[in-house]
Amino acid sequence: MVEWRTSEGLVPYEMALAEMEARATAIAEGRAEELVWLLEHPPLYTAGTSARAEDLLDARFPVFEARRGGQYTYHGPGQRVAYVMLDVGRRGRDVRAFVEALEAWIIGALAAFNVTGEVRPGRVGVWVPRPDKPPLPDGSPREDKIAAIGIRLRKWVSFHGISINVEPDLGHFSGIVPCGISGHGVTSLVDLGLPVTMADLDLALRTSFAAVFEEGPAALREAEGKAAD
What is the C-alpha separation between 129 and 112, in angstroms, rounded? Predict the structure, then answer.
């Protein structure tokens, strides 16, 4: 059984980090169930283990050492953060496959709103093609990032997780080079013209999670087909 928890209001980052670490330890010791925790943070930047100092352009918000994989990212109101405390040891002990499952989870949730999320080699997260915007200076098509991924494992239990932009202030991302990737932009569901609420996304996340982590790829493809219809 996976417990789902949704927090109202803005959860301080330090509180969330302490809760995640305690829960991951309890799961590893068999004292607690797996947990998916949905929340929002106040405006802040987090630095992953690969963060480069030059990618912090304007520390206008508090900066936290996240101790997760990845580089700099932004969290704030209007962004759904989903922290995943899952037993990766029981789920195959394959970190690459686990990250791919997180990507598929996001892509499946976005498909519920007819948004085509894609992954790119060498670029962490989920991206949305933007043919409506001018191409990059080198002529390559413009793509905007809509979701970020960053995890840490302790005794084969994951914590940290994913974030999806519903309606954050996209200007807040300009204080960093998001995930160390320059040139491309950042978008959100509302920025794409979709009046999606946090509750709408939460429902899509639960449906997609079941398809990816509990029912398998065939169920995910079926769910995406229904969303496209």
Answer: 17
Residues labelled catalytic: 179
Helices (H), 10-82: 13-28
Residue with tokens 């936290």: 64
Nearest to 162 by CA among 116, 199, 217, 107: 107
Tokens of 193: 């013209």
Q: pTM of the prediction?
A: 0.90
Residue 120 contacts residue 140 (beta carbons within 8 Å): no
| Rounded-to-integer distance, Cα 144 and Cα 127, Å | 6
Q: Is the dihedral of CA 153, 159, 165, 168 positive or negative?
A: negative
pLDDT tens digits for range 126-177: 999 998 888 888 888 889 999 999 999 999 999 999 999 999 999 999 999 8
Cα→Cα distances 43→12, 162, 202, Å:
10, 16, 20
pLDDT tens for 6-62 read 999 999 999 999 999 999 999 999 999 999 999 999 999 999 888 889 999 999 999
Burial 197-224 (b: 16+ CB within 10 A, else e): ebebbbebbebbbbbbbeeeeebbeebb
